[in-house]
């Protein structure tokens, strides 16, 4: 708003003038506020623009680096370089734009505020001051008495002088106001117009720049279309090759694989040649010969380490320059096994458990290796023999004499630093799971050849359904790849005991009655997703059991558990009383001599245990950041064993002797009184089935876990059973504890995959780890420790799993518990960011896991812990 004042009106000092002055002063104050805000916003915009330019420069720098990395591709390099130059020009234009904003907005408006508005403020101060003086002079003149002539004259003189001063100052003030009102328009418009012209120039420059770049962009667009077509063609050819090789049975030669389709002739000819080479000899894929670089043979072999544990590790071996070397990774320096092949021999090894083994023996050491097949073993033995003969011929031609003294290897044969692969991966897991009925097609849509699985449901899935299952959350479905992920043996057995057929009988029992359509391959994703949610989340197609059906099911499961346990108990030797803490000298030897079929007491021998605990003892010392851990000894609350490697070795020595004593001093026990329905367990602690107050799906899961019936367990969970259901009528036991009583590793794994708590205790304060230790189930102990069970948990009788294992003289479980505790101590010493723990510890647990799944009889306790129920 522009307000101009009249000079005549200001001399009168009328109320109209005063009102106008007040209005002008308010308008100027608001103008100052708005201008100050605009200047601050401009400063912020300029700062943001500088940050934007800086980020843009970094982005352009990244483009240039990518162009330099693509020097082998001329099209990418030249295009990216041109794009980077254009974007750099745009950054320069932006810099000019922000500089102009600083000059036109910030500088000009700040100058207007500092100069013109300051003059206005100074004039206003003088005007306010003289106005007050004028009012005071008028008041004094009016109050002068007429009988005092000198006061009248003084008042008149002051008033006259004040009026003259007021007239002068008020005219200057009005002039300053009118000048400001006139100048504000020009200053603001000039500033903004300059800024807008800067924008016009910026966009004109950008348009001109990209107009020049447009032909190149169109050209690249055309090339890109062709590149997409070429990439699709290459992808199709590679998928054809992949599927052809994948469908070919391993170890067999198919005549059909030697011919390929005639379409796309150039590509098909190359593919046919590759497939022909493959069909000629499968073993050629497992090794390579590079004569030009002096490599007689190279490929993967398993190598047995020379440590106490005799671990096997897969390494890349090669025979070159008359040496046998191996590598763990490509960039690693090769480790020399044999420096001179003339000084060694090679032979078959048939006296060990592993197949396809051979041994390279030198004067100072021997190296045990394992091939993947008999053909590969013969190929490696022949290659080593040929290399030995070649080395002799070359040296004989030169007339050099062989030095038969021992040769020192520059590398170590001990490769125990890498954890062993004890889990199935890829085709092995796929073939086993696909052998289950119904698993050759997706469980939900029927897509053939699925490559994914839900491990808590035990079903196979196609890639689309697996993505939908992932979106449901892990509390409904846990998805894993059958070809890309590693599979632990207990998890693989879980998949093989369920399958699509079993699960669909449960989750699709009422689908036909409800008229629900099952999706087919190729159906829209939203239809498949709606069906899967209705099936697994809402459980709309599950047939709800009646009370009578539930009662029959629970009673049937209890009888099934009785039959299983009775048949298992018939195979057990007589029970022995609890072992005494002190043994007579020589009792272990006499016991071993008197028993013809003595079960091995531990996975490791005495010398291996000594080496094992020494390793963990020195490792914990090395990793500790405080005082030496080996020097700190704490007594165990249950057995008095010192928390050190020496104490562990002493305890295990006593354990082995205790086992032998128990074998010789075993006595027959009288059968206990039979309950209404008694389920015998392979221990003195019995599981008794009595008529419950009410039947529920939780009770079904409870007895199905004990009866080792995974289909019934899956059915109970589908009916809404709580996986951590507590049986208040049976010492508050859970299904996981009953799975331990049943003795099945797979049922425990199934419950854990479905969210069972590994540390939930019964009324006696015993968790699953306590019960597994009491039962002597080493495989279950190993599983619970891997799943985070608290090994330090104390029952109400003040006993921990370790103290129970010591009293039962179970060397395997004692070994596992002590190693797990040592591993925890080492991880604590390494700091809060340590997750993996010691690799040797992981290797040992993998050995136990493999044995528990594939050879459970080797870990079963011949004499379970004698612990009567309270």
From TrEMBL:
InterPro entries: ACAP1/2/3-like, AH/BAR_dom_sf, Ankyrin_rpt, Ankyrin_rpt-contain_sf, ARFGAP/RecO, ArfGAP_dom, ArfGAP_dom_sf, BAR_dom. It is found in: Cell membrane; Endosome membrane. Residues 294-389 form the PH domain. Pfam families: Ank_2, ArfGap, BAR_3, PH. The keyword Coiled coil applies. PROSITE patterns: ANK_REP_REGION, ANK_REPEAT, ARFGAP, PH_DOMAIN. Its main location: membrane. The keyword Plastid does not apply. GO terms for cellular component: endosome membrane; plasma membrane. Residues 407-416, 583-594 have a biased composition (Low complexity). The BAR domain mediates homodimerization, it can neither bind membrane nor impart curvature, but instead requires the neighboring PH domain to achieve these functions. This is Arf-GAP with coiled-coil, ANK repeat and PH domain-containing protein. It comes from Clupea harengus (Atlantic herring).
């Amino acid at each position: 708003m522009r307000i101009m004042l009249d000079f005549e009106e200001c001399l009168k000092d009328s109320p109209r003038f005063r009102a106008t002055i007040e209005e002008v002063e308010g308008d100027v104050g608001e103008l100052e506020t708005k201008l100050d805000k605009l200047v601050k916003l401009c400063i912020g915009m300029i700062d943001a623009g500088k940050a934007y330019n800086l980020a843009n420069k970094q982005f352009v720098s990244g483009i240039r680096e990518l162009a330099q990395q693509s020097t082998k591709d001329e099209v990418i390099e030249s295009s990216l370089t041109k794009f980077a130059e254009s974007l750099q020009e745009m950054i320069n234009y932006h810099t000019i734009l922000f500089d102009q904003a600083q000059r036109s907005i910030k500088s000009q408006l700040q100058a207007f505020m500092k100069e013109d508005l300051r003059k206005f403020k100074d004039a206003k101060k003088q005007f306010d001051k003289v106005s007050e003086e004028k009012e005071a002079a008028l008041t004094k003149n009016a109050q002068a008495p007429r009988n005092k002539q000198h006061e009248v004259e003084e008042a008149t003189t002051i008033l006259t002088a004040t009026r003259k001063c007021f007239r002068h100052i008020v005219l200057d003030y009005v002039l300053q106001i009118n000048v400001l009102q006139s100048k504000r328009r020009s200053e603001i418009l000039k500033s903004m117009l300059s800024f807008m012209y800067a924008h016009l120039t910026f966009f004109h420059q950008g348009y001109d720049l990209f107009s020049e770049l447009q032909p190149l962009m169109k050209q690249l667009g055309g090339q890109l279309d062709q590149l997409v077509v070429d990439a699709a063609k290459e992808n199709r050819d590679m998928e054809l090759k992949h599927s052809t090789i994948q469908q070919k049975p391993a170890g067999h030669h198919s005549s059909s694989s030697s011919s390929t389709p005639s379409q796309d002739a150039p590509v098909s000819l190359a593919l046919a040649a590759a497939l022909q080479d493959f069909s000629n000899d499968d073993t050629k894929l497992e090794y390579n010969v590079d004569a030009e670089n002096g490599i007689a043979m190279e490929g993967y072999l398993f190598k047995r380490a020379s440590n106490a544990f005799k671990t096997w590790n897969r390494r890349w071996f090669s025979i070159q320059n008359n040496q046998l070397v191996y590598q763990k990774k490509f960039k690693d320096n090769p480790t020399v096994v044999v420096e001179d092949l003339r000084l060694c021999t090679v032979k078959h090894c048939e006296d060990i458990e592993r197949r396809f083994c051979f041994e390279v023996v030198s004067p100072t050491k021997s190296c045990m290796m394992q091939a993947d097949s008999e053909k590969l073993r013969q190929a490696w033995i022949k290659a080593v023999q040929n290399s030995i003969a070649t080395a002799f011929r070359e040296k004989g031609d030169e007339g050099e004499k062989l030095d038969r003294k021992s040769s020192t290897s520059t590398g170590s044969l001990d490769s125990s630093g890498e954890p062993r692969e004890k889990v199935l991966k890829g085709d092995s897991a796929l073939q086993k799971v696909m052998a289950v009925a119904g698993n050759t097609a997706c469980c939900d849509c029927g897509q053939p050849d699925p490559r994914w699985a839900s491990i808590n449901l035990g079903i196979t899935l196609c890639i689309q359904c697996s993505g939908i299952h992932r979106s449901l959350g892990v509390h409904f479905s846990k998805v894993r790849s059958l070809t890309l992920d590693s599979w632990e043996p207990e998890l693989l057995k879980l998949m093989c005991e369920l399958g699509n057929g079993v699960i669909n009988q449960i989750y699709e029992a009422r689908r036909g009655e409800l008229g629900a359509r099952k999706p087919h391959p190729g159906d829209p994703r939203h239809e498949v997703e709606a069906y899967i949610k209705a099936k697994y989340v809402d459980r709309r197609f599950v047939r709800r059991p009646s009370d009578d059906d539930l009662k029959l099911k629970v009673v049937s499961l209890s009888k099934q558990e009785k039959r299983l346990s009775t048949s298992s108990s018939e195979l057990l030797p007589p029970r022995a009383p609890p072992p005494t803490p002190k043994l007579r000298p020589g009792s272990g030897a006499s016991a071993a001599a008197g028993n013809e079929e003595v079960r091995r007491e531990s996975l490791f021998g005495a010398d291996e245990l000594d080496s094992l605990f020494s390793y963990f003892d020195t490792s914990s010392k090395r990793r500790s950041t405080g005082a030496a851990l080996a020097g700190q000894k704490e007594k165990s609350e249950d057995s008095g064993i010192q928390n050190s490697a020496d104490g562990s070795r002493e305890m295990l020595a006593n354990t082995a002797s205790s086992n032998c004593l128990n074998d010789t001093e075993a006595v027959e026990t009288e059968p206990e009184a039979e309950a209404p329905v008694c389920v015998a367990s392979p221990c003195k602690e019995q599981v008794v089935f009595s008529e419950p107050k009410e039947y529920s799906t939780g009770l079904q899961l409870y007895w199905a876990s004990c009866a080792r019936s995974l289909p019934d367990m899956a059915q109970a969970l589908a009916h809404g059973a709580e996986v951590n259901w507590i049986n208040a009528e049976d010492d508050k036991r859970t299904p996981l504890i009953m799975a331990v009583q049943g003795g099945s590793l797979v049922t425990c794994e199934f419950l854990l995959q479905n969210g069972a708590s590994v540390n939930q205790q019964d009324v006696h304060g015993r968790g699953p780890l306590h019960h597994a230790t009491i039962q002597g189930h080493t495989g279950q102990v190993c599983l619970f420790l891997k799943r985070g069970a608290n090994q330090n948990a104390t029952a109400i009788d003040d006993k921990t799993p370790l103290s129970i294992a010591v009293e039962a003289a179970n060397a395997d479980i004692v070994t596992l518990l002590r190693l797990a505790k040592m591993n925890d101590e080492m991880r604590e010493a390494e700091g809060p960011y340590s997750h993996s723990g010691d690799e040797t510890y992981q290797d040992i647990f993998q050995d136990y896991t493999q044995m528990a799944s594939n050879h459970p009889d080797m870990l079963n306790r011949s004499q379970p812990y004698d612990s009567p129920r309270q």
